[in-house]
Amino acid sequence: MSGRLTTVLTALFFAAVAILALGQARQGSEGRRPDGPRAPRLGPSDAEKERARLRIGITKEQQQQLESILEETGKQTRAVYDQLREKHKQLQALYDEYEIDRAKERTVIREIARLRLRLLQIHSEHETKVRQVLNKEQHARLRALMKEAMESAQRRWRERFPPPPPGTDKRHPGP
Length: 175
Description:
- The protein is mainly alpha-helical.
- The protein contains 5 helices and no strands.
- It is extended.
C-alpha cells in the first residue's frame, strides 16, 4: 500500500481522536506536550469537551458512549500500529542484506497489507458505532467540527514546517 494511504489513515485516526474526545485542538501553551515533544499530548479540558458537546448537540450520555467507542478504537488501532512497526522493522532488516530473500519479503509485505486492511476495518467499525449513537444532524455537526480541527492542524503544520522557497531544493544541497 502507498505512503499516501498511510498518511490518509493516520490523518483520519487523529481527526477522530481529536474530535470524538469532544475537544478542539488546544491553542497556545495549553497545546504543548507537558514534558517535551515526545511526551503524550494532553487531552481536552473539561471546558473544551463541554463546548464541543454543546456545539454537536449531544447529551452527556452520548458523550460517554462516544468516549468509550473512541477508547476501544484507540486500543485496537495502537495494537495494530505496534504490529505494523514490527513488520516494517523486519522488512528493513531484509533490505539491509545485499541478497534479499524474496520469499520472506513477500511474506512480510503480505502481513503489512493485512495489517493496513485491519486498520481500515477498525475505522469502518468505528464509523458504524458512532452512527449508532448520533442522529443524522449530530453526525453532520461532528463531521463539520472534525473538518475544522483537521484544517486547523494542517494550518499549524504548514506554519511550523513551511515549504522551501521556490527554486531551492533542500533535499539536495548545492556545491
